[in-house]
Amino acid sequence: MSTETQDEGDDLEERVTNFLRRNFPQIQMHGGSAAIQDLDRETGEVSIALGGACSGCGISPMTIQAIKSRMVKEIPEIEQVHAQTGMDGGMGGGGGMSPSFPGETVDDDGEEDEGPEAPF
């Protein structure tokens, strides 16, 4: 790889990082993080991992969609964005809490949690 190609690649990574900082400050304000996991300059694909409070957050799918749609418009070299949280089993981002379901947890007294009671 030539030095010129390497410099262009570093510039691309910097632009993606700046995009994340500039467009999604609320991710950091809410205890989340967004980081580049992989950047393939030849195919124009970038993989982004959302972590911290993003793992398990109910609005993380909307955040992912916003990243995907905005990044390809703003950075012409990027053709496809893969973005995931640690909750969906991808990229090993890890973190966050797993959802629990009735019958899957045990209370302090040793009894299974049957979940909340119906109000009727």
Automatic annotation (TrEMBL):
One Pfam family recorded for the sequence: NifU
Q: Record's superkingdom?
A: Archaea
Residue ranges the record marks as coiled coil: none
Q: Where is the NIF system FeS cluster assembly NifU C-terminal domain?
A: 25-81
Biased composition range(s): Gly residues: 87-97
Enumerate the residue ranges of region (Disordered): 84-120
Q: Where is the composition biased (Acidic residues)?
A: 105-120
Spell out the Gene3D superfamilies in the cross-references: Fe-S cluster assembly (FSCA)
Q: Report the protein name in the record.
A: NifU family protein
Q: What is the lineage of its organism?
A: Archaea, Methanobacteriati, Methanobacteriota, Stenosarchaea group, Halobacteria
